[in-house]
Amino acid sequence: MSKVFEYYQRLAQAFGPSGREDAVRELIGGMAGDFCDDITTDALGSLICRKCGAGKKVVAAAHMDSIGVVATYIDDKGFIRFGAVGGLFRGDLINIQVRFENGTRGVISYEEKTPFKDVTLEHLFIDIGAGSREDAEKRVRVGDFAVFEALPFEQDGILCGPYLDNRIGCATLLLAMEALPETVENDLYFVFTVQEEVGLRGAGPAAFGILPDYAIAVDVTDTGDLPEHKYPMACHMGKGAAVKVMDRSVICSMEVRDALENAAKGLNLQTQREIMMAGGTDTAALQKTGAGIYAGALSIPTRYIHSPSEMCAARDVEEAAAILAKAMQEL
Ligand code: CO
Ligand code: ZN
Question: So what's the pLDDT on residue 231?
């Protein structure tokens, strides 16, 4: 088992949909403790791990929240209707398992009389096997959050499972922290942000509390290597960490792009350039903090993002961590 997989598995197990990140935060705080000088949490819940130095302030940020669902209504028969926490696609949701914070398990299914092409989230429900509303309410209340439940695996250097987005980014930050020397010149902040999946809500306030000179987000990105992919994309799983050029939310600062590419070159590692046509990242919120901050991102090429079976290559993660650690020190 690779160290990357071991970290990912531990982090993915922790309950942490947007706004309910406490368990992930506690876990990461424990894992980061030995490798930084100071750990704080801001009012929104972002975790800030600082490795002190006298030089430039450099932030690396990974969101620790995941997508999920929230119970909105329980019918007479005990079936639970739900709302989306973050971006959900119906094709990823049919007959998959979910887990509520208290451990209650269930299955998401749909109203079969609706032609499948017309199915929306409103036609879906969670079945926890209850016989009635009263029965269901013993386990689940309106307002309770749930996350995907699926068994991760590692096979020939490939990882698969739920919430690589973005526990794999958190793992990357932890590995980068561990790779740092005892003393560092720059003032380094490893920030584990909240509520990215519901609109990049936590990263801006966390960065505002630091006002760094540079910021690097780490998150997953799409790959263009699947059959009949929706748009051509020069980013493939297993071909190295991706340096973000832009996505729908941000155009990255050249200062940070260059620092990441130069760090990779110095390590003799291949990188790819990433342009993601859909979706945004914390990079955008970091860049717009205060009077503006040089911001960029390092991405892990990941297939089936936001499904319970996301897939990436362990080597891309290891290399991303090495590049991140070096770039943070050289900026
Ligand atoms: Co996401
Ligand atoms: Zn993400």
Answer: 87
pLDDT(101) > 90: yes
Using CA atoms, how far apart are residues 58 and 33, in angstroms rounded to an integer?
19
3-state secondary structure of 118: helix
Of 29, 171, 145, 6, which is closest to residue 82 (Cα–Cα)? 145
Ligand 1 midpoint to CA 195 (Å): 10
Q: How far, in Å, is the centroid of ligand 2 from the Cα of 196?
A: 7
CA distance 96 to 9: 19
271 alpha carbon, distance to own chain's centre? 20
C-alpha 157/C-alpha 263 separation (Å) is 24
Q: Which two tokens stand for residue 135?
A: 């029965």
Query: How many Å is the Cα radius of gyration of the chain?
Result: 20
Which amino acid appears at position 212 of this protein?
A: P
In the predicted model, what is the mean pLDDT of the chain?
Answer: 97
User: Hey, which residues are catalytic here?
Assistant: 196
Q: What is the pTM of this model?
A: 0.97
pLDDT of 278 over the 90 cut: no
pLDDT value of position 48: 98
Ligand 1 centre to CA of 308 (Å) is: 12
Q: For 36-55, how does the pLDDT look when each residue is reduced to its tens digit (9 = 90+)?
A: 999 999 999 999 999 999 99
- Which residue has 């970091």 as its token pair? 286
Chain centroid to CA 66: how far?
A: 6
Strands (E), 123-251: 124-127, 145-149, 153-155, 158-161, 187-193, 214-221, 242-247, 250-251
